[in-house]
Design brief:
With 309 residues, the chain is α+β, with helices and mostly antiparallel strands. The chain is built from 6 helices and 14 strands. It has a domain of 94 residues. The longest helix has 23 residues. The radius of gyration is 27 Å and the shape is flat. 27% of the residues are buried.
C-alpha cells in the first residue's frame, strides 16, 4: 500500500522524460558470408555469358601392349571443353523520406546512412545465397538473368540418399573417397559445407577431429578439421544457406580453389545515388557477377540426411 504522506509519485508524473539508450545491437544473421569473403576473384567477365575451359581424361582401366616393331596405333584424343555461367545483377535499394531524416532517433545517426550500411550487409548476404543456391536463367524475353550456384554446378558426384539417412563417419569418408576417385590426389575436396546439425554430428565423432585457430585471414573464429581416411584434412564450415529441411538436407564436399567469383567489368559492388523523385532520398547498392567452377568433378554433393542428431 502506498504511503499517504507522498503527494506525487513517478507513475502519475506526465512530465517524465523517456529513458532510451542510444545503443543498437544488430544481431541479424546476415554477416556469415564465407564464400563472399573467401572465394578468389577470377578475371573479370566481359560478357553476360562468361566461359572458361575444363579438361579431364579418365584413368585407364586396361592397356593394350604393343608388339615388337609394330606401327603406332592412334586413338581419339580428349580436348578441353567449354563451360559457362551467366552474370546476374544483385541490388539492394534504399529509400528514406525527408521527414525520417529530420527527426531525432535514438542512435543519433542519419537514418539514410544507417539504411545504406544495412543494405550493404544484405547485398553480401544475397551474393552468398546466390553463390550457394543460384539458378541459371538466360535473361531472354526481358526476364532477370540468374547464375548457377555451387548446388547446380556439381553433376559428376551427386547422390540422393534415402530421406533420413544418418550422417556417420563412414558416410563422411565415403564422400571423401568419391572425390578422390574422380580427380588427382592434388585436387581432392578440402572443405565440407553443411547445415549446423551435420557439423554437430561431426563434433560427436570420437576420432580424427581437431580444432584450428583463426590465424588465417579468411577465418573469423576457430573451426573444426577432420582428418579423413583418404589422407586429406577437411575444414568443416556450417552454413546458413545450405538446405537443412527434411528430405533435402544437403552436404557439399568442395575443392575450394576450384571455385571463384567473376565480376562483370566495372560492376563490382558499388553505391549509386538515384534521382530524388519527391521528398525522399533514393539510392541502391548494385553488383553483377557470376560463379566460376573450374572443376566440379572434384566436389561431391549428397542430399537426404536426417535433420536430427
Amino acid at each position: 500500500m502506498a504511503s499517504t504522506d507522498i503527494s506525487v509519485i513517478s507513475y502519475d508524473d506526465g512530465s517524465r522524460r523517456e529513458s532510451l539508450l542510444s545503443i543498437l545491437r544488430d544481431v541479424s544473421p546476415n554477416t556469415d558470408n564465407y564464400f563472399v569473403s573467401n572465394l578468389k576473384k577470377a578475371a573479370n567477365a566481359t560478357n553476360t555469358l562468361h566461359e572458361w575451359v575444363t579438361f579431364n581424361t579418365a584413368r585407364p582401366t586396361s592397356i593394350t601392349f604393343a608388339s615388337e616393331g609394330a606401327a603406332a596405333s592412334y586413338s581419339a584424343l580428349t580436348s578441353p571443353a567449354r563451360t559457362s555461367n551467366i552474370t546476374a545483377i544483385v541490388t539492394r535499394p534504399v529509400r528514406v523520406t525527408g521527414t525520417e531524416r529530420a527527426i531525432a532517433v535514438a542512435t543519433g545517426e542519419d537514418p539514410y546512412v544507417f539504411q545504406k550500411a544495412e543494405a550493404l550487409k544484405m547485398l553480401k548476404a544475397d551474393m552468398e545465397y546466390a553463390i550457394v543456391n543460384g539458378t541459371r536463367v538466360s535473361g531472354a524475353s526481358g526476364t532477370a538473368r540468374g547464375m548457377t550456384g555451387i548446388d547446380g554446378c556439381i553433376s559428376t558426384n551427386l547422390t540422393a540418399r534415402n530421406s533420413g539417412t544418418s550422417f556417420s563417419e563412414v558416410e563422411f569418408n565415403d564422400i571423401m573417397q568419391e572425390s578422390w576417385d574422380a580427380v588427382g590426389s592434388a585436387y581432392v575436396a578440402d572443405l565440407l559445407v553443411c547445415p549446423m546439425v551435420i557439423k554437430r554430428r561431426i563434433s560427436g565423432f570420437t576420432t580424427n577431429t581437431r580444432n584450428i585457430e583463426a590465424k588465417e585471414k579468411r577465418l573469423t573464429s576457430e573451426v573444426q578439421v577432420y582428418d579423413s581416411q583418404v589422407g586429406k584434412s577437411v575444414m568443416i564450415i556450417p552454413h546458413k544457406d545450405v538446405r537443412s529441411t527434411a528430405g533435402t538436407l544437403t552436404v557439399y564436399a568442395l575443392r575450394e580453389d576450384t571455385y571463384a567469383m567473376s565480376f562483370l567489368t566495372g560492376r563490382e559492388p558499388q553505391w549509386h545515388e538515384l534521382a530524388e523523385d519527391g521528398d525522399r532520398s533514393n539510392g541502391q547498392y548494385l553488383t553483377e557477377f557470376t560463379l566460376v567452377s573450374y572443376a566440379q568433378r572434384a566436389s561431391v554433393k549428397r542430399t537426404g540426411y536426417a535433420t536430427t542428431l
